[in-house]
Design brief:
With 750 residues, the protein is an alpha+beta fold. The protein folds into four domains: 15-214, GAF domain (Beta-Lactamase); 232-354 and 369-406, Beta-Lactamase; 452-577, Beta-Lactamase, CATH 3.30.450.40; 633-735. It has 17 helices and 20 strands. An eight-stranded antiparallel β-sheet has the order 3-2-1-8-7-4-5-6. A five-stranded antiparallel β-sheet has the order 10-9-13-12-11, with helices on one face. Strands 17-16-20-19-18 form a five-stranded antiparallel β-sheet. A hairpin with a 5-residue loop joins strand 16 and strand 17. Helix 9 runs antiparallel to helix 10 (457-472) and helix 15 crosses helix 16 (702-738). The longest helix is centred in the middle third of the chain and has 64 residues, at 390-453. The N and C termini lie far apart (188 Å). The relative contact order is 0.05.
């Protein structure tokens, strides 16, 4: 009683309570660790109260609790530090009063009474104007509970916690500040006030510790996020596999998956579920159940599964995890600006939990009688599913956001790269097309120049096949000329040195039926990409295969609605898909070949006519010379009369065909002048003809024909006039020679 008297004197003087609060406050300022603060606080409060035990009891989320700090005087009571108490030891009604009314309690086991002192109104939650203590009888169970603990008097003050980051949130019941004494004692009202002030200081310390823990957690969270962000962004290429492994390790997982929706890619690490045999080739995220969840979760909802075997929506896929240690999962959809990119999955294994209880607990049924022993009892729980904590979910969401950003950037980079590649391919394609166009222009110009400078059409055709083979990069190009009765012959060819020449070859009639000719006359272009698989007549296929032809391209050459021939390209070492521009090139050069052939034929016709006229003129000259020689001989032999008669008959015979030729030349000259005059008038009144007329004018070399044709006709007319002149001379000579003899009937001589 001496110590109590001394403490009472100190309280009366006011120094004891000030010292207590000062020491607790100083400890809060000196230490940032809540455990140190609580240990110091319970020691100071127990010393101040002079009781056998003062402890801090902290509530868990399920209502149970643990003694986290304790101070005992000379081991008068057994230690409870580190022991857990079930939620039923403190009824829910009592916990509600601790929170709503901040109700304190003082129990005296000896007289069986409890004093209750609320600070707030349980109905309104507002502070009461006075701190009164109301006494009533203690529940018998409570008396038995304290007696079994060895306690005869107790004082309980609630410890509330206000989250400093949520000013508007209601406080929660963090724990209890409890004082136990092994003998009955009467606590004065002033002591209750001092303990309440100490509890308020402890609440402040808890708030500071919470802030510190949150700051440390935030710092650690930033370190983790930065480390994984560096893996995702600092490397030349995105390190998804490495970042996934770091994420799984950070969150304490045994496995995980990263699924990217757009590419259907899946990255895995650690333990993985296995689908049944019929779905073994399917990616887990492509399963219908997973797809349904992804469709519902594209708004950003996280699915935290503590125990997948107790999740009703997971019954269908749960067997896939039975061969693994996986028990819990965290499924996080990856979204970037409302765009769903994929899923990050984190797997946790089942754990073993050890809980040190204050006294043995029957886990099968609820405790019906008060606890009679508080001796430490270790409970081992195997195969437990760990709970996902809010801070873990927050960290996982932050990491998922970094994955989403990295994946989005990778997809954007790939899209930009694809666009650049497409642009490069387009530029290359356009360049190739331009190059082909330039090559085509060059070839056409070369062929046109050759047509103008050389009237040998075979030389022009040889140039065409050579340039076509060069442009198409094919094995052989030839021109096949149609002869009588649809027979044909290869007249020009340009081929690879490794191929045997087929120049001069004629095809069997049955391989070129009349139906083919009609189709080619109509402009048919035939591209055979693969001789082996194309729908061909057996004879045609055998003929092509005999020449080792794997693919060919056939373009007709038509003139005046008649099939003149074919220009053909052969691919002899592999099949080939002929392109439209290649067909256009062949068609264009086939048109050039037609112009060359027409001009050559026109030139040949003019040369033939000229040669025939010259030959006939030479024959007439020779006949005249013979007549002159004969006449000279008759004169010399004094047989002029007979010679005159004979010469007159011969002259008359020669004159008839010559007159016919001369008359036709006159008509032909008139027609030619009329046509040339018509052309001149067209040129006069239509100085700007269409492109096709200009092209045709240049092709046939109209100026050359205009100048040369009249000259040919004039030359032929002069030769005919010369013959007529000689015939006239011969006739005059015959008449003059016969005038002295007798008259002769012309018709009779003829």
């Amino acid at each position: 009683m001496t110590a109590v008297t001394e403490y009472s004197q100190e309280l009366a003087a006011g120094t004891g309570e000030e010292g207590l609060l000062y020491r607790i406050t100083a400890r809060i300022r000196q230490s940032l660790e809540l455990k140190d603060i609580l240990t110091t606080s319970v020691a100071e409060i127990r010393s101040f109260l002079g009781t056998d035990r003062v402890m801090v009891y902290r509530f868990d989320s399920d209502g149970s609790g643990e003694v986290v700090a304790e101070s005992i005087h000379q081991q008068r009571l057994p230690s409870l530090l580190g022991l857990h108490f079930p939620a039923g030891d403190i009824p829910q009604e009592a916990r509600d009063m601790f929170l709503r009314a901040r109700q304190r309690s003082i129990v005296n086991v000896a007289n069986g009474r409890i004093g209750l002192s609320p600070l707030d109104s349980p109905d309104t939650g507002k502070s009461l104007s006075s701190e009164n203590i109301y006494y009533r009888a203690v529940d018998s169970c409570h008396i038995q509970y304290l007696t079994a603990m060895g306690v005869q008097s107790s004082l309980v003050v609630p410890i509330l916690h206000h989250d400093p980051q949520e000013q508007t949130a209601r406080p929660r019941l963090w724990g209890l500040l409890v004082s136990h004494h092994s003998t009955p004692r009467t606590d004065m009202k002033q002591e209750l006030q001092i303990v309440q002030q100490a509890a308020d200081q402890i609440s402040v310390a808890i708030a500071h510790s919470t802030l510190l823990s949150q700051a440390r957690a935030e710092q650690q969270r930033e370190v983790v996020i930065n480390r994984i962000t560096n893996l995702l962004h600092s490397q030349p290429t995105i390190q998804l596999q490495t970042a996934l492994e770091a994420t799984i390790n950070t969150l304490g997982g045994v496995g995980g998956r990263l699924y990217i929706e757009s590419t259907k890619e899946s990255y895995t690490i650690g333990e993985q579920p296995s689908l049944p045999d019929e779905s073994a080739r399917m990616v887990m995220e492509e399963h219908l159940l997973w797809q349904d969840w992804m469709n519902e979760s594209k708004t950003g909802n996280i699915w935290a599964i503590n125990d997948l075997y107790k999740e009703p929506h997971w019954e269908e896929l749960a067997p896939a995890f039975q061969s693994t240690q996986i028990r819990g999962m965290l499924l996080i959809p990856l979204n970037y600006r409302q765009n769903f990119l994929g899923v990050l999955s984190i797997f946790r294994k089942e754990v073993e939990i050890e809980i040190m209880w204050a006294g043995h607990r029957d886990t099968n049924e609820q405790q019906k009688l008060p606890q009679l022993s508080f001796a430490a009892w270790l409970e081992q729980r195997k195969g437990q599913a760990p709970q996902w904590k809010p801070e873990e979910i927050t960290l996982a969401q932050a990491l998922a956001d970094q994955f989403a950003i990295a994946i989005q950037q990778q997809q954007m980079y790939q899209q930009v790269q694809a666009i650049n590649e497409n642009l490069e391919s387009l530029v290359e394609e356009r360049t190739a097309q331009l190059q082909k166009s330039l090559e085509l222009t060059r070839v056409v110009k070369q062929v046109a120049n050759q047509i103008r400078s050389n009237l040998d059409y075979k030389l022009t055709l040889q140039t065409i096949v050579r340039e076509v083979r060069k442009l198409l990069k094919t094995d052989r190009v030839l021109i096949y000329k149609i002869l009588e009765k649809l027979e044909g012959e290869v007249i020009v060819e340009d081929a690879d040195n490794n191929l045997r020449s087929i120049l001069g070859m004629k095809t069997p009639l049955e391989c070129f039926p009349e139906d083919y000719a009609r189709l080619y006359v109509r402009g048919r272009v035939r591209a055979i990409n693969n001789v082996a698989s194309e729908d061909l007549a057996p004879c045609h296929r055998e003929f092509l295969q005999s020449l080792q032809i794997k693919a060919n391209l056939i373009v007709p050459i038509t003139m005046n609605n008649q099939l003149w021939g074919l220009i053909i390209a052969h691919e002899c070492f592999a099949p080939r898909n002929w392109q439209d521009e290649e067909m256009d090139l062949m068609q264009h050069l086939a048109d050039e070949a037609v112009l060359a052939i027409q001009q050559a034929q026109l030139y040949e016709s003019s040369r033939t006519a000229e040669a025939a006229a010259k030959a006939q003129a030479e024959e007439l000259v020779q006949a005249l010379q013979q007549i002159q020689q004969t006449q000279a001989q008759l004169i010399k032999s004094e047989k002029m009369s007979s010679l005159g008669l004979w010469a007159l008959g011969v002259a008359q015979e020669i004159r008839n065909p010559v007159n016919f030729i001369y008359a036709q030349l006159s008509d032909l000259s008139d027609y030619t002048h009329q046509l040339l005059e018509l052309i001149r008038l067209y040129q006069l009144y239509y100085p700007h003809p269409t492109g096709e007329i200009c092209y045709q004018t240049e092709t046939i070399n109209l100026d050359f024909l205009t100048n040369h044709l009249p000259k040919i006709l004039l030359s032929m007319k002069l030769q005919a006039e010369r013959i007529n002149s000689m015939m006239l001379s011969l006739r005059n000579f015959s008449y003059s020679d016969l005038s002295s003899v007798k008259g002769v009937s012309q018709h009779e001589n003829i």
